[in-house]
Amino acid sequence: MAKPSLSAEHKQYLTVTGNYWAFTLTDGALRMLVVLHFHALGYSPLQIAMLFLFYEIFGIITNLLGGWLGARWGLNRTMNAGLLLQVMALAMLLVPAAMLTVVWVMAAQALSGIAKDLNKMSAKSSLKFLVADHAQEKLYRWVAVLTGSKNALKGLGFFMGGLLLTVFGFQGAVAAMAAALMLVWLASLMLLRTDFGKTKAKPKFSELFSKSRAINTLSAARLFLFGARDVWFVVALPVFLGTQLGWEYWQVGGFLALWVIGYGFVQSLAPYFTGKQRGAVPDGRTALHWALPLAAVPALMALALNADWPAAVVLVLGLGIFGAVFAINSSLHSYLILSYAKQDGVSLDVGFYYMANAMGRLLGTVLSGWIYQSQGLAACLWVSAGFLALTAFISQALPRHNKATA
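Now predict its structure.
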C-alpha cells in the first residue's frame, strides 16, 4: 500500500523550516566566531559589543521594512533575499586579516543583521498562511516546533563556531559556511512558492507601524524580555567564562551550545507546559504568569555571585533554570503575535513585533559590554532582573480570552 504523500502545506512548512535551520546554524556560528576571535586579538568586551551594534540596528530597520516588503513582494522573496545576503556577509569576512578592521566587520555584521531578520520574519509570518484561523492549537504547536528547533540549531551553531575556529581558523570556518549556505539558497529558489504572503492590496508605507493595542503591548514586553537575556548572555557571559574561569574556545562554544539546544528543546515543548493537556490556548494572563518567576532567576544568581558562591556552579545551574523558563516565555510570545496578527498583511504585524525584539537585543548587547566592563557580571544580572520585572508589568495589559472565544 502506497504511503500518503505530504500535503502542499506540509511541504512548504518543511522548506521554510529547512531554510530557517540552515540560516540559523551559520548565524550562531558567526556570532561565536566573532566574539572569540576578536577577544583573542585583544578587543575589550565593550569593543566586541560594538562589533554587533550595526547587526542589531539594521535588524530593527529590517523588521520594520521587511514586513512591508513581504506584504508587497511575497515572503518567498524576502526569505531568499535573507539567505543571499548572509552569503554576502560571510564573503566580506574572507578578506586578508589586515583588512578586518572594526568598521569593516561592523559593515559585514550590518548585512548579516539584515539577512537574519528578513529570514526570521519570513519564516514566522509564513505559518499564518499554512494553518487555518480556527486551528489555534495547531498554530501554537507549529510555532513552538519551528522556534524551538531553530534555537536548538543556533546552539549547535555556537558549538560549530568554536570548533571550526579551533580546527580551521577564522577564514577557513567562514568560507565553509558561505559555500554551504549558497547551496541552500539555490535549493530554496526552486522549492518555495512564489505567491507566499502577498496582500490583496499593496500596503502603504504609512502602515508600517502597528495600530493594534495588543501587538504594541506584546512588542513592548518582547523588547524587555530579550534585552534581559542579551544584557548578560551575548558578551558578558562568554568573556567571563574565558577570562575568569579559564575555559578554552571549544569549551565556551560547547557550553553555550548545550544551553541553547536545551533552550530550544523546551521551546518546542512549551504547549505541554502551558495547558495543552487541558485543551487551553495561551493568552495574556499566561504570558504574565510565566514572566514573573523568570525575573527572580537572574536576581538570585547575582546574589549568589555577590556572596562568593562558586561561579561555575552558579552559572551552570542558574543558566539551566533561566533557559527553561525563558524558553517558555519566548515560545508564548511567538504564538501570541501570530494569534493577534491579521491574516491579510501578517508580515506587517510580525515585522513590527520583531523590530521591538531587535531593539531589545540591541539594548542588551550594548549594555552587556559596557556594564560588564565597568561593573562585572553580577551587575549585568541585576539589570536583567529589572528588565524582566518590566516585562511582567507590561504583560498585565495583554488581552485575555473571554468565554466565547477561549
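Residues 9-196+209-395 form a domain with the Growth Hormone; Chain: A; fold (CATH 1.20.1250.20).
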